[in-house]
Amino acid sequence: MRDLRRIHLAQRMIRHEVRTTTICAWTGFNEERIRNLAKSYESTSQPAHRHRGPSPKRVDVFLRYNILRTEAACLGGLARSFEVLPPAPVKDAARVLPGFVLGEVLCHTFEVYRAVVPEARLTMEHFILLVVALAERQEIELDHCAHCAGVIIVEVGSRERRICFACREAEGVNASAHSEDEDTERASSEGVQQPLF
Question: φ and ψ at 46, to 5 degrees?
């Protein structure tokens, strides 16, 4: 039964276009076993693209653009809700965390995320990098927006304002409307809030 679960996990990761070395780490299978599973999977299902080269390693991908920062926060919040993230910081999380039991929860969490955000830019491998980084809490961590209490991604030790992109945009709209009359300002505020809620 354990072997069947590991095979199923490997197939799910293949479907999500995870690299062979990463699948090996989470399933315990060797590279030849993964390649054979990929071939058999492709013969019975829609072929999955097989990425080559190293997996993503740098967390700045989650901080570079607001849309990716927002997606990373969403993924991080789901990871915490589904208990993918450990309650306390973990040293060398890339070595400690991988295992087929947590891998199953990891895949389920990512699949829920893709169901909610079908046009998502972040991949399963980005999610794995995010989970490892959030588990270690050396570079990035989860926090809450000071305005809406939504989950946000922040750099560890950063003194930047704890505010999400949506609230930052809303502040900008409200600030530009401040010089106009009260009715215009109220209408502008409502226009920002409606798409958020």
Answer: -65, 125
